[in-house]
Amino acid sequence: MLVCALLVATPAFAQDATGAQPWMDVGKSPDARAALLVAAMTQDEKFALIRSRFAIGEKKPEEALTAAGYVAPIPRLGIPAQGLVDAGLGVTNPGGARAGDHATAMPSGPMTASTWSRDIAFKGGETMGREAWRQGFNVLLAGSVNLQRDPRNGRNFEYAGEDPLLAGTLVGESIRGVQSQHVLSTMKHYALNDMETARNFHSAQIGDRAMHESDLLAFHVAIEIGQPGSVMCSYNRINGTYGCEHEELLNNVLKRDWRYPGYVMSDWGGVHSASKAANAGLDQQSAGEVFDKAVYFDGPLRMAVGAGVVPQARLDDMVHRILRSFIAVGAFEHPPQRQPVDDALDAIGFDVAQRTAEAGAVLLRNENGVLPLAPGVRRIAVIGGHADKGVIAGGGSSMVGWTSRGTSAVTGLAPTTWPGPVMFQPSSPLLALRDALPDARIDYVDGRDRAAAARLAREADVAIVFATQWAAESVDLPDMRLPDGQDALIAAVAAANPRSVVVLQTNGPVELPWLDAVPGVLQAWYPGIRGGEAIARLLTGAANPSGHLPVTWPVDVSQLPRPTIPGLGFKPAQKPEDTIDYDIEGANVGYRWFAAKGLTPRYAFGHGLSYTTFATSDLQLHAEGDRIVARFSVRNTGERAGAAVPQLYVHLPQGHATPMRLAGWDRVELQPGETREVEVALAPRLFADYHPDDRSWRIAAGDYTVVLGQSAADTGARAALTLPARRLD
């Protein structure tokens, strides 16, 4: 076993916990242990904990592993080092600097969200936590929960869709999975970091009530479920104030109203002051020596504490929160152990990634049963998308560039520098299809010659076009269109072969101008290291599609709250503006916006087809004390086993500014002909409104309708419920 330099301190819990180091007594609460530790620390030791150092490049501490950040241990007190690694979609290894380290490249956030599965989200987090621990890290910069307010946001692939309940629940489960491995997870980016354009200075403008009923609700749900050790404050300003200096969001909402006991760390380059940030609730500055104008949480903050501008009690609270979080996840008793690759555990990670991809791919369209591919199909044309090599992934800090299958299967694609390089995970759909269908002839062309692609399609029984859209951190997409002439390619193939299928690998929704000519469309998001195998199983019917959209799919940008946003893309024609007006839609994000405006999207939030069919019946509602419970039946009415995702939407009393909200759901695996009785506890806050005057959630007296359907547009069974006015605790 290789022991990482990160673990130079001998764990002090091996000593007499009731003697010289009582904070090592595991019988005490995390808060009690942290308090004892703080009381034993010197001022220098306290200041050493409240800033991390960048662990990449020339300023990397010699003893640190190459990764996003590092805080040295304090051996005298048994305080372990902090090794921080980017891990939104798997454990990263920048430039392959850590020889021998590789990780599972997980599917993108929307793909996990499309599963609507708490268990799958937990298993994904558990996988990332386990792999981080075995590589020597105890902090994962994971837990991304910003809502998708616009499909052009370049970082949507890290997030979990547009609905606060769905996103908060699944991200919370992922965080819980990470921390089950004694690895602390962040939750990020708090708050309203919903666009990347000018993210370091733009101000997200939004009213207090709308903010609480949308983005903040997602964060709150994730905290309640996942209990993340740290919250990462965002780059952007919110109503004019930087996220890492925002006293209302950090002190008042997060720490007071929500009673959050953990610590707030900054994003890399998100700190602009010492005393203002510390007094507002920031607890740890991240890599300030590289990314900020100053290491504010060293000399400047020492001066502020010495002058009484920042109370000593505030410094002690910062340290207490950090220590408490590491104690709570067991990081003192279970320090990470850097170990050689374990093939068996590697296989487990691959299985989790493939299960996620198979459950999260969304069958958008399937006319005339073009899918699954018929057993008798003899000739298939596979076209475009580098399907002979792999599946695309997003760019930026979350990119997992080193797996046991190697690095990118396609090289040289621009941009080759930050936020690139463009990554194709080495998992070829073409090779997987050939393995799955050994008796079929499967030919491939890259699609650059549309005429050649059309000729190949014309000669085939079925043509499958793989279309890709690369997106990345720090830059937004300029539009909703597929790049590089892929729409024209798809149209040419569809004209040549009426039995054409399009497999989309995109950041999110795109325009589909060719849709009427294409009978089959599978949205495969960024499907991860086993994406090729998962896609092949879905196309052939070895796996039954069961994903449901976690976002509304607009027809085009004209349906968005902001059809035009200056500054999008790498070389924008216009400069970005200083503000983004989210008051336009307020809390009505996604399907709520479409319902409020009477718009019909291309595909509704929650939409997703299957190779079988389902029916729901017997919806009943009950108010049981503080609980609102829905009971109903789900039946598989088709001939294949599959997973139904019945969804429950509350329609608020007439005249409400928000017409409807997702209030609950379940994912139900059913055999052909099987019926299951289902009970879902509906989220009371989704029946309530936030009242800024007294910072409360209150249900208004009135008549509520709950609709049971398979998407936000499905007007299925409904039941009425009359509720009295009440305040939620």
List keywords for this structure.
disordered N terminus; eight-stranded mixed sheet; six-stranded mixed sheet; single chain; alpha/beta; 729 residues
Can you describe this structure?
- It holds the Pfam family Glyco_hydro_3_C.
- By secondary structure, the protein is an alpha/beta fold.
- Helix content is 25%, strand content 21%.
- It has an eight-stranded mixed beta sheet.
- Helix 5 packs parallel to helix 7.
Average pLDDT number: 96
* SS field, number of helical segments: 18
As residue ranges, the low-confidence spans are 1-16
Give the number of DSSP strands. 32
How large a portion of the residues is in β-strands, by DSSP E? 15-25%
Rg on CA atoms, Å? 26 Å
Organism: Luteimonas flava
Domain Fibronectin type III-like: 644-712
Keywords: Hydrolase
Family: Belongs to the glycosyl hydrolase 3 family.
